[in-house]
Specification:
Structural class: alpha/beta
CATH class of the largest domain: Alpha Beta
Mean pLDDT: 89
Number of strands: 10
Oligomer: single chain
CATH architecture of the largest domain: 3-Layer(aba) Sandwich
Number of helices: 12
Helix content: 40-55%
Strand content: 5-15%
Low-confidence stretches: 1-48
Length: 355
């Protein structure tokens, strides 16, 4: 049977359908492209709006004071993410070149050493390094000191007089001090002190002192808790950093009214001054802004915040709070910040049953 010829209107309808489908596809593609462009612009605007990202392991209040002052002066926005020294150090290593962080700030230097050892820091600008004396920054120039804290023996003034205080931090390993003192061994603060001891006295002496710590000391969860325990008479003394006492004194003194501070001095391991560090991730897409931020906090304006603020930490490049014992009077031991070894310390403290 011969095939019938399509009606002219049917052919027109078919052609119209083809054209309509083609137009629809082009419209859909155009719409998708527009949405993609809008999304990209939004993402770019978000990244620009976010500014630089700081992984802050320093005290949150101090980090916020620095950031607010920097943004006010420069107009550069800073997003702060709060955490702890080793938490962020390990996170940065896991993130590698994909880390969203531009700047890393710590309370203690072993975390900086860990990231530096992984090759993830960019060199700090010379102008920034020149602001900070060599003793408060590592020799390699891959990060810099931004604040400092002194090791002290916080003691119960009702139970100990000056003649009964330990002459050296190492004396606390003696059985005569069993049950009489405390510390917060699990914290990064205390582990920095042990790391300095390891550098100064070697592995054998450090292991012996850690054994004495395990045998003699009461463990507490943090410096503030240890200070409170001394004030309450639970122990006669505790190894802490100085600013916990000053901070409490500036408020109500309810956790430090009965406590005095003993500075070991004489280059004793117990006179160790821990350096808080600041470094710039080499993966940053905002190198100029990140360098400007680090220069700001290590310079005159940022260090003035330490002097006039409520952190009671030492300035590393200017005058410190007048209430603090001057750093030059502490006669602290010389420690190379870039060689403080948190990994070895954790291994030794774990072996000693402390963490």
């Amino acid at each position: 049977m011969p095939r019938s010829t399509p009606h002219p209107q049917q052919g027109a309808n078919a052609m119209e359908g083809i054209m309509t489908n083609s137009i629809t596809r082009r419209s859909a593609l155009a719409l998708a492209a527009s949405l993609l462009a809008a999304t990209s612009l939004a993402s770019g605007a978000y990244a620009q709006d976010e500014g630089i990202v700081v992984y802050n392991a320093q005290h949150e209040s101090l980090g916020r004071e620095w950031i607010d002052a920097f943004t006010k002066e420069t107009g550069i926005k800073v997003t702060m993410r709060q955490g702890s020294d080793m938490q962020f150090a390990n996170q940065i290593i896991q993130e590698g070149d994909a880390s969203p962080a531009d700047v890393f700030l710590t309370e203690n230097s072993p975390a900086m050493t860990l990231v530096d050892g992984a090759g993830l820091f960019a060199p700090v600008d010379k102008e920034t390094l020149d602001q900070v004396p060599p003793e408060y920054r590592p020799a390699d120039g891959m990060w810099t000191g931004i604040a400092a804290r002194s090791t002290v023996f916080a003691y119960d003034k009702r139970k100990l007089t000056e003649d009964k205080l330990p002459k050296s931090m190492l004396d606390l390993a003696d059985p005569a001090w069993k049950g009489r003192w405390g510390a917060a061994p699990a914290g990064a603060d205390f582990q920095a002190i042990v790391s300095a001891l390891l550098q100064l006295k070697g592995e054998e002496a450090t292991a012996a002192w850690l054994k004495g710590l395990k045998d003699n000391a009461t463990p507490y969860k943090g410096n503030s808790v240890a200070l409170k325990a001394v004030n309450a008479g639970e122990v006669e003394g505790a190894i802490i950093y100085h600013y916990y006492w000053f901070g409490d004194q500036a408020k109500t003194a309810e956790n430090s009214a009965n406590v005095g501070l003993h500075y070991f001095k004489n280059q004793d391991p117990g006179a160790f001054v821990s350096i808080s560090g600041g470094g710039i991730l080499k993966s940053t897409q905002h190198m100029k802004e990140a360098q400007a931020f680090l220069k700001f906090i290590a310079g005159k304006a940022g260090q003035a915040i330490l002097k006039d603020g409520t952190s009671y930490e030492y300035s590393v490049s200017g005058e410190s709070n007048a209430k603090l014992v001057p750093l030059k009077e502490l006669n602290a031991p010389k420690v190379e910040a870039s060689e403080l070894n948190s990994k070895k310390v954790v291994e030794m403290m774990t072996a000693a049953g402390l963490i």
